């Protein structure tokens, strides 16, 4: 199967009325133009030539406007009505509302573009989930991960990824667990808010935090905020203490923290909140991630969920960086190996942040717990072998109160009934994704 692409030039109609703004309509058009110029899509409007016999290597996914009901899976009625009423305001009112808002602008086309952006993300995810394409990218705007259920902020109107995740779970019964990986340089506070109590969505975010002084200036972007209620343990923040991050820092975080947790969670679908504002040259992010860095992260994530993955554009404000980075991600989605990384070693500051996160995640994940005990996965496999031979103990799943099943959460035997009940009770109380082995005499 081919890789899918969702793009609709109508989304460029959302633009600031006065002055300039980093969230420029050209953000999506330069990505699309790059894709066309590389021969991945046949579009005479951009290439200047038409070749009907060569439609391109990517499958086009048509964007549509998300419905009120779909948006209502995440956003309040008041939030939807606020966006709808933008169409009725004149320029003077919209300028005043822009000046009063939290880093977001409005015009008469904002509502339509926001529904297209959200609907495009939904259709992208559905096409992958339904098997029409093997994976896909949604080149959409305005972005979404800052939009909370009740508020537009941070260049975002509706939370495209959150609405898509909920729609997937509603329409595709086989998709019960979704991983949302957010590599945008800003913390996706809206995504965290939407799923903070929900174990059916694992949210992992790598972002500049700097003790809450980096946008969105929310202290809940710290690593200690791990979810609540049934969602405890299913929110993972990796908060960088400063800018200047390199490829090696992100790859280290993926290898040591992101991928082990993701593999243990074993999602049915992966959605990437793909902000490219950590890319080299982006003045807002002030980091130095190369196209190869984003490509390697994509490559690792493709090992999950049988490759069912949708990449949805979030931030990224350097037009050259965003187009080069998006193209590198697309090439990996299509099956090309990522380019070589030139700086694969993590900085001491980044390694320290990752270790602090591991220390916190020890409470929720079997992998991290074993790591804290100095046990490798090879040692754990040896333990399971010995316990089977000596006590006839084997791995067993545990059902979370939400109905989700986590494989290999326990080691148990018919002789360990009481101890297993204790372990299950502990699991239900603090919602661990895994339990330490139980040994019976």
What's the SSE blueprint?
Blueprint: E1 3-6, H1 26-37, H2 44-47, E2 59-61, H3 68-71, H4 77-84, H5 91-100, H6 110-129, E3 135-138, H7 160-171, E4 178-182, H8 189-195, E5 201-208, E6 235-240, H9 247-265, E7 269-274, H10 291-301, E8 309-313, H11 319-333, H12 348-361, H13 366-372, H14 377-391, E9 394-399, E10 405-412, H15 417-430
Parallel strand pairs: 1-2, 1-3, 3-8, 4-5, 4-7, 5-6, 7-8
Antiparallel strand pairs: 9-10
Domain Histone deacetylase: 21-333
Keywords: Chromatin regulator, Hydrolase, Nucleus, Repressor, Transcription, Transcription regulation
Family: Belongs to the histone deacetylase family. HD type 2 subfamily.
Described by the principal axes of the CA atoms, the overall outline is globular
Order of helical and strand elements:
EHHEHHHHEHEHEEHEHEHHHHEEH
Going by CATH, what is the homologous superfamily of the largest domain? Histone deacetylase domain
pLDDT under 50 segments (min length 5)? Answer: 374-379, 420-441
Quickly count the helices.
15
């Amino acid at each position: 199967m081919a890789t899918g692409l969702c793009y609709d030039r109508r989304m460029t109609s959302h633009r600031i009325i006065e002055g300039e703004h980093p969230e420029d309509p050209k953000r999506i058009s330069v990505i699309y133009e790059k894709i066309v110029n590389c021969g991945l899509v046949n579009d005479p409007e951009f290439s200047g030539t038409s070749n009907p016999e060569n439609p391109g290597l990517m499958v086009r996914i048509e964007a549509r406007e998300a419905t009120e009901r779909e948006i209502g899976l995440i956003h309040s009625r008041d939030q939807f009505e606020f966006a709808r009423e933008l169409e009725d305001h004149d320029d003077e009112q919209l300028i005043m509302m822009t000046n009063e808002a939290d880093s977001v602008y409005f015009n008469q086309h904002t509502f339509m573009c926001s529904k297209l952006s959200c609907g495009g993300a939904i259709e992208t995810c559905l096409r992958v989930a339904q098997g029409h394409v093997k994976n896909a990218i949604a080149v959409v705007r305005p972005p979404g991960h800052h939009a909370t259920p009740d508020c537009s902020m941070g260049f975002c109107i509706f939370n495209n990824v959150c609405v898509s995740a909920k729609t997937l779970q509603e329409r595709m019964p086989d998709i019960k667990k979704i991983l949302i990986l957010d590599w945008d340089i800003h913390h996706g506070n809206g995504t965290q808010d939407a799923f903070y109590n929900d174990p059916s969505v694992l949210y992992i975010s790598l972002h500049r935090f700097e003790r809450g002084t980096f946008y969105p200036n929310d202290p809940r972007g710290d690593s200690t905020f791990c979810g609540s209620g049934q969602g405890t343990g299913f929110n993972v923040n990796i908060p960088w203490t400063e800018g200047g991050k390199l490829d090696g820092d992100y790859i280290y975080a993926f290898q040591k923290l992101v991928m082990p947790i993701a593999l243990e969670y074993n999602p049915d679908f992966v959605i990437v909140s793909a902000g490219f504002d950590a890319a080299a040259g982006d003045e807002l992010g002030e980091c130095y991630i190369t196209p190869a860095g984003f490509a390697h992260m994509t490559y690792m994530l493709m090992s999950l969920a049988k490759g069912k993955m949708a990449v949805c554009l979030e931030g990224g404000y350097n037009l050259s960086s965003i187009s080069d980075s998006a193209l590198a991600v697309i090439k990996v989605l299509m099956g090309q190996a990522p380019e070589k990384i030139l700086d694969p070693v993590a900085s001491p500051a980044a390694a320290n942040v990752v270790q602090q996160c591991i220390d916190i995640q020890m409470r929720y994940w079997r992998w991290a717990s074993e790591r804290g005990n100095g046990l490798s996965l090879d040692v754990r496999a040896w333990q399971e072998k010995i316990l089977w031979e000596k006590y006839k103990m084997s791995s067993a799943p545990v059902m979370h109160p939400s109905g989700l099943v986590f494989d290999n959460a326990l080691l148990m035997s018919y002789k360990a009934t009481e101890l297993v009940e204790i372990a299950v009770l502990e699991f239900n109380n603090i919602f661990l994704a895994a339990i330490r082995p139980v040994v019976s005499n």
